[in-house]
Amino acid sequence: MIAHWQTREELEHQVVTLGKQGVTARAIARALGVSRNTVRAVRAAHEAGRETEQVAIPARPSRAPRPSKLDVLKPRVAELISRFPDITAQRVLPDLEERRLRWRLHAREEAHACSAPAAAADTEQGDA
Fold it and tell me: What structural domains does the chain harbor?
């Protein structure tokens, strides 16, 4: 029994194959030119690999939940339901739409206010 190997993968394959044929660790080590500890380590790693679950496609990692677009509206909906227990969705929707429009206008005003000083500074530098 003369076995030749060039890579670690070939060595591991030879060790496992000879071990399955019933060859002792000492004989495998002698035939492959490695120590008995190496043979023992390769066999142990192979057995450990066979005991772990093998998955062809790993599962996606779980992600932190993203906030919902409705999260900002939930307090208002809860308030409306507590004040008017029999309120319908058709009555809630116009109130929420009105609030959304106000938020959009407010956001635009803030964005315009933030960019206005920068624009003014640019024109002042251009005049100098």
Answer: 8-51 (1.10.10), 74-127 (no CATH)
